[in-house]
Amino acid sequence: MAGPEISVVIPAFERISALDGCLHALAAQTLPPSKFEVIVCDDGSRLPVRDALASTLGALADRLCVRVIRQDNGGPAAARNRGAGAAIGRYIAFTDDDCRPEPDWLERLLRHFAMRPEALVGGGLRTTAGSDRYARATQAIMDFVYAEQERRNGLRVFSTSNLALPASGFNGLGGFSSMFQRPAGEDYDLCARWYGGGGEIAYAPDAVVAHDHALTLGAYWLQHFTYGRGLLQVRRRLRRTGVSLRPGSLPGSFHLRLIASPVARTGPRGAACAFLVGLAQAATAAGVLAELAVPTFRPKARQAVESF
Fold first, then answer.
1. Nearest to residue 15, comparing CAs of 104, 110, 99?
2. What is the pLDDT of residues 92-113, one digit of tens each?
3. Rounded to whole angstroms, how far apart are CA atoms 264 and 15?
4. Angle formed by the axes of helices 253-266 and 133-150, to 10°?
5. How far apart are CA 137 and CA 222, in angstroms?
6. 99: closest CA among 138, 60, 61?
7. DSSP string for residues in 204-261
8. Coil, helix or strand at residue 126
9. Residue 133 DSSP label
10. Phi, psi angles (nearest 5°) of residue 232
11. Phi, psi of 212 (to 5 degrees)
12. Nearest one of 234, 227, 212 to 279, comparing CA atoms
């Protein structure tokens, strides 16, 4: 029998309930179960995922081919690489344990690959009906970034909440960089290396994943602070290639338009969201400063620095 056309890779750490919901969403895919597989890489959860979700895995066995592998805690980039290394599909689709793919997610991704078989594809993201204010603010940021990318040519970057590409191309790049030990920057870096190597990048807004960040104010700040650290790492690597994340933008103009975007879209009732978007940008700036002061990654003198 032919193997699956596409492999879904999910890094998982501790969020058992969220992962349970993600697996149920994948079991509801319109793509026949024989055409895809799901690989969960347990990134050293205290209670092993295989044990915690034994009843769910058993109940979904006739609708979902799931393999659970486990590694010592190494971060999401390492977990994605480990999962991708076990994949047997022609294409690999990445999502996260707190995501809920729409029922036609994989079917639509494969339609895009039928037209562009060698492309890296970023799918659409949205919040859920019950998302809190922090999730909505994070989504507003992503909406703005993706819309900006559609307005111009050049490098496009997508979140690993919804990103897919040919397995051969992913392996040819060497996967996600182990330089990124925190959950931030490894997805943009992968897109940049793909683009720098001449690879095609496409946006598939109809292949939708719902991503619900359940956050407190402190967790929201920390999330965007971590993004700032990762963003600086990506920019340092991009600088060596002459590629810019935002070509042609006036200094500061991107951030001002980003903060104003909720109000521009919904009027005065978007003011609270705009405040949180501004707070996220302050947290990102703080993360950049922290990374400048104490870099996460210091290559040894004899160590070859990764390049595009």
1. 99
2. 999 999 999 999 999 999 999 9
3. 35
4. 110
5. 14
6. 138
7. EEEEEEEE-----HHHHHHHHHHHHHHHHHHHHHHHTTT--SSTTPPTTHHHHHHHHH
8. strand
9. H
10. -65, -40
11. -110, 95
12. 227
Which domains are present in the chain?
6-293 (3.90.550.10)
> 85: exposed, middle or buried (C-beta count within 10 Å: 0-12, 13-18, 19+)?
middle
Give the model confidence (pLDDT) of 232-246 as tens digits: 888 887 777 766 676
What pLDDT, on the 0 to 100 scale, is given for residue 25?
A: 96
Distance CA 11, CA 239 (A): 29
| Span 198-226, pLDDT tens digits | 999 999 999 999 987 778 899 999 999 99
* Whether this model's pTM surpasses 0.85: yes
- Encoded tokens for 20: 């349970």
Cross-strand pairs, 86: none
The two tokens of residue 120 are: 């890296």
